[in-house]
Amino acid sequence: MRCRALAELAPNPVVLAGEAWDDYGLLDSGHGRKLERYGAYRFIRPEPQAMWAPRLPDWDAHGEFVPGSDEDGGGRWQFDKPVPREGWPLAWNEVSFTAQCTPFRHLGFFPDMAPVWTWMRSMLGGIEDATTLNLFGYTGVGTLALSGSGPVAHVDASKKSVAQARENAALSGLSERPVRWLVDDAAKFAAREVRRERRYDGIILDPPKFGRGPGGETWRLEDNLPALVADCRRLLDAESRFLFLTVYAVRMSSLAIGGLLAEHFADLPGTVEHGELAVREEGEGARLLPTAIFARWRAD
Fold first, then answer.
1. Looking at domain 8-298, does it have CATH number 3.30.360.10?
2. Per-residue pLDDT averaged across 95-104, rounded?
3. Is 266 within 8 Å of 3 (Cβ atoms)?
């Protein structure tokens, strides 16, 4: 039996770049904003990391999210053309979902996660009925992408988000997939799973900077992430395939969260990598727009 080397932190960062598909594309970016297409509709949203100049002379959009004056968020949508307020259907591979202009500037899913969904499915290849856990699962696009490989536990503290995830499953014709839809505090759920001695083949972890659980629990990323990662490690073993952690909108480096994973996964075989998620613009002279940092442990 071949002895597999224990996980070490890869020193060089990795870029996972999302490409356009039929229902989504990054049309242009610059001067702190980005122009995207979501099906038949185009939107402008703030993007502080787009520090360059736009390529296109004019941005024709259906709506724009205008941010508030404070650093922590706020703002509102302004519409120049009609947009379905209840949302409209989009798809990624076999997964259908509803896009909608939310009060938090998002549109119901994160398109930069598309290469992550593809990567996770590839990591689960060859495993029959792979069990995965999606913490902070939001509207369930990642959960439905994973559900083709086996049972998924989808956990989110927002009852509204979990309801939307179930609706997306129905829209996709995937309601019969083996998914547990759970309205719960992600950290408390993970701790209970540790006590139950559960194990998973893969975990996707997409925590917010700040949040509250269904019972009023307070989540602060810098304070609570290390303990949650430690519990997630206990839910994985030498036969597991991956943990993928994404972090948005914080003053933190990918090397920092990569070091956190390396500390907790030093006793497992595999590799810990870190880097950035990005989306590539469409058209000539396309640039990469960074969107988030990530760290991942993967079995070799």
1. no
2. 96
3. no
